[in-house]
Amino acid sequence: MSGRDDAGEHFTSADFDPADFDPADFDPADFARMVEASAYGVIIHDAATKNILWANPTTLRMLGFTLEELLPLKANHMSGLGELYSRSRGVGWLQEAVDRGTASIEWMYRTKDGREILTEAIATRLELGGRAVIMVQFRDIERLEETRRTLTRTETMLNAFLEQMQEGVLVVDDDARVTFASASAEELLRREPGALADLSLFGLCVAESAPALREAVETSRREGRSQPFRFEARLPDGGTAWFSGSCQHVLEGELEGHLVLFHDVTERVLSRQQRERDLQHLNYLARFNAMGDMARTIEHEIAQPLAAATNYLAGTQRRLDAGGADQQTVLQGIAGARAQLERAAVIMKSLRDYVTHLEQPLQQVELGELFAEVRGLLELNAMQRGVQLRVALPEHDVPVWCERVLTGQVMLNLCFNAIDEMAEWPLAERIVRVEIERTEHGGVFRVIDTGKGLAHIPDGRIFDGAFTSKSSGHGIGLALSHQVIQRQGGEISARENEPRGAVFEFSLPATAAAA
Question: Is the pLDDT of residue 340 over 70?
Answer without folding.
Answer: yes
